[in-house]
Amino acid sequence: MNNTLRFRVNSPKVVHETIDGEVVIVNLEKGDYYSLLGAGADIWEGLARGESAGEVVEAICQHYQGDRETITSAIERFIEELQQEEMIAPDASLEAPETAANGGTKAGIEIGEKLVFEAPSLQKYTDMEELLALDPIHDVDEDMGWPRAKVEA
What we know:
4 helices, alpha+beta, 4-stranded antiparallel sheet
């Protein structure tokens, strides 16, 4: 993988939010949602900020204990998986994010005691597809409201 390659979140099709260290991502077209924790959340945040694949590897290696080659390989596989799920796309137009005085990115991972690196895992859930496809005005139970689908008699 090209370490200088930068990515963008595939919006407006994909939306994401970080809540208490967990990144929740929704693909509005497919109706799938995803959960990222630990290194996966840190990798996503770096990519979403416009950091290159190489910059993400550097940040993860500084924050987590583990063999650099193992970490690099796991991050490359994870980025490929994010692309296959159409959550991110390469973006050559992105410029490098501003750097802080210490050389790290301004919004980078806080450096403290190193955590043990565990390969990132993309948890995928598909049970929202039908709910996202509902028209909240016309396709819901009139008494219960959204997200209860109207039952045809």
